[in-house]
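Deliverable D4.2, example record:
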Amino acid sequence: MYETAFDTKVTYCEYRDDGKIAHADMFIHDQRVCLNDASAYLADTFGIDCTMHLMLTFNTQEELLACYSKLKEGSRPATPFTQTPYSELVGNFVDRFGVLWGFMVESN
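Output generated by the structure prediction step:
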């Protein structure tokens, strides 16, 4: 649906064991948009009900942590910040307004 609506293509896609999308990227109006099927996982695991997940990428851990330090007051973690095969630091949190954020250091 999104590929048709925005006249674009998925540029990257990774699936979970259950066949749902763990992570997918597409460019909409020259902006990278990250998509996933995290809502059921977050609801079941952390009690977070959401249909929108805003994902931001940073160039360095320092930039990520500086931004997070300004948003973390009143927030609650969704998934802990950790190192993964695709990022030196990635994690999710819900800010005090109920917005689910994903922060990730862009791997080179």
